[in-house]
Amino acid sequence: MVRTLLVRGMLVGIVAGLLSFGFLKVYGEPQVDRAITFETQMDEAKAAAEKAKGMAMPMEQPELVSRRVQASIGLFTAVIVYCTAFGGLFGLAFAFAYGRLPGALSPQGVSALLAAIGFIALYLVPNLKYPANPPSVGNPETIGMRTALYFIMIAISLAAMVASVTLKRSFVPRFGEWNANLAMAACYIVIVVIAGLLLPVINEVPQQFPAVVLWKFRIASVGAQFIMWATLGLLFGALTQRASASGWRRT
Known about the structure:
- This protein folds into two domains: about 1-50 and about 70-135 and about 210-250, no CATH class; about 140-205.
- The chain has about 250 residues and is an all-alpha fold.
- The chain starts with a helix and ends in a 6-residue tail after the last helix.
- The protein is built from six helices and no strands.
- It is globular.
C-alpha cells in the first residue's frame, strides 16, 4: 500500500499548498512588497549619491519576471509544487514508520507525530538559527554559503531527532515511558543547541530595514510552514484512519 500512501500524501499536499498559498498571499506578500520598496529606495539613494560624485551610473537590468507574475502564478506554482513534494515524502515516511514506532499508535497518532517531528526538525529549529529573510536582506555574494549552512543545520536537526527517537527505545525499560520522553527531548535539545553554537552566525539585515516588516515576514514564513505540516498531519491521518477502519492494512 506504499503507492496508495504516496498518492494520498501528494493529494493532501495539494490541499496544504492551497491553504498555504492563501495565507502567504494575504499576509506574506504585503511584507515582500514593503521589502522591495525599501530596496528600491536604497538603490535610488545610492544612485543619487554616485551621481552627485560624478560617478558613472550602472545600467539598469531588465526585469525577467514581473512582480505581478511573481506574486500570483509564480507564488502559486512554487507553493503547490513544494507542498505536493513534501506530501509525497510524508506519505512515504508514514509507510515506513507505521507499526515501527514505540507504542500502539493509531494511523492518526502516527500521522500527527510525524507532522510534529517534521515541523520541528526540518523547519522550526533550523529557522531559529538561520531565519527566513525578505528581499533586500542578505549579501548576494554569500547566498551560496548561507544556503549551505541552512541545509547543514537541517541535516543536523534531522539526524539529532532520529538519534533521540532511537535512543528512547533503550531508555524506556530503564526509566519508564515518561522519563524516556524527557530524556529523548533533552538529547535532541542538547545536540541542536551545540550545533547552533558551533555554526557561524549570519546577520546581514541592514540597520535601516523596518523591524516590523522583518518580523511579519518571518511570521508569515512560520505560519505557512505550520499550515502545511498541520494539514499533512491532520488530514492525512484522518483519511488513513478512515481507510484503516474500512479494512486497510499496511503491507
